[in-house]
Every structure is written in structure tokens, then in C-alpha cells.
Design brief:
The protein is built from five helices and seven strands, in the order βαβαβαααββββ. With 173 residues, it is of the alpha/beta class.
């Protein structure tokens, strides 16, 4: 059963290969086959590497506005996200928002999807509220080659810290 939501923040022009490597490192013992969706900030709607990654793996891309993201508290704030986007983080709040939206969609099926490319779909998330009680981070923000990744789910397992983080700060522009 696909239960994982992957939140992604990335530098402008990050390649699909960079994104895939970051996701695979962050998954750790989790299976790639358990991923149900990718989530990010709406300004990444046309980010070629992100769209290619989603298309390659037939994963829907859920996008959230900066206002929606700002409504989610972030334990460790990103200075790059604050500087470039005016929000405290991307990958963790987007993962939580998408997991919460998945729970909401299960309760009310039939959400519309707009096509972003031949194989990836972008789902509008206008109805998502900052209340994410059923969504939990399984893996907190990790940074790998300019790509930040967090994993959320609606299954109850505690978040774990990654020990293989690159120490470089993320550039979200």
C-alpha cells in the first residue's frame, strides 16, 4: 500500500537525477514503491527536474501555496526558504499538507487533477487547511546535493532524524 508522501524542496534547475538520489537516500529502509505522491511549493510547478522525476516514476505532484505552507509550523527553519520564498521551510510542511490532503481525499474522493506533463499530474491543493492531525513526519528534512526531502504519512510511526545530511544550505530560487 502506498502510504508515503515525499516533500521536496530544491535549487533552481536541480536535475531529476539529483532529486532521485536525494529521495533514495532519504527513504532509507522505506521502499520506493510505498511512495504515493510528491509535494512541493507551487513555484516549482514548471521545474523540469522535478517534473521529469515525477513522470519517470508516475507519481502525482501536489503543489501548495506559500500561504498554505506558512500555516504549518516548522521545527527547524530554513534560512534559504525564508530568504527566497518568505516561508520557514518547504519539504516538511509540503509533505504534511499532502498527507493531510490524502486523508481528506479518501474521505471525499473525486479531487480534480490537472496534467503537468504526460505522466505526472499536479493536484491543486486549495482546500487543504493547516490542520494536519492525522499526518506525521516519518523522516525530517534531509539535505542531499541541494535537494531537501522529508517523508510524511498518515500511518502512525515517529519521525526519525537522518544522520547522512549534507551540511550545505539549500537554495530554493
Amino acid at each position: 500500500m502506498k502510504t508515503l508522501i515525499i516533500g521536496i524542496g530544491c535549487r533552481l534547475h536541480s536535475s531529476a537525477e539529483q532529486i532521485e538520489a536525494a529521495v533514495r537516500v532519504t527513504l532509507g529502509a522505506h521502499s520506493f514503491d510505498d511512495i504515493s505522491a510528491i509535494a512541493s511549493v507551487d513555484i516549482k510547478a514548471y521545474e523540469a527536474g522535478l517534473l521529469e522525476f515525477c513522470a519517470r516514476h508516475a507519481l502525482p505532484l501536489k503543489l501548495f501555496s506559500r500561504e498554505q505552507i506558512a500555516a504549518i509550523s516548522v521545527e527547524v527553519r530554513s534560512s534559504a526558504a525564508r530568504e527566497h520564498l518568505g516561508i520557514d521551510g518547504v519539504c516538511e510542511p509540503c509533505a504534511l499538507l499532502a498527507a493531510a490532503a490524502k486523508t481528506d481525499a479518501a474521505a471525499a474522493p473525486g479531487a480534480a487533477h490537472a496534467s503537468a506533463s504526460a505522466s505526472a499530474s499536479v493536484a491543486p491543493a486549495a482546500s487543504v487547511t493547516p490542520n494536519t492531525p492525522n499526518a506525521q513526519l516519518l523522516v525530517r528534512k534531509t539535505i542531499h546535493d541541494g535537494v531537501t526531502v522529508a517523508i510524511a504519512s498518515t500511518t502512525a510511526r515517529p519521525a526519525r532524524e537522518q544522520t547522512n545530511n549534507d551540511t550545505q544550505e539549500q537554495d530554493h530560487s
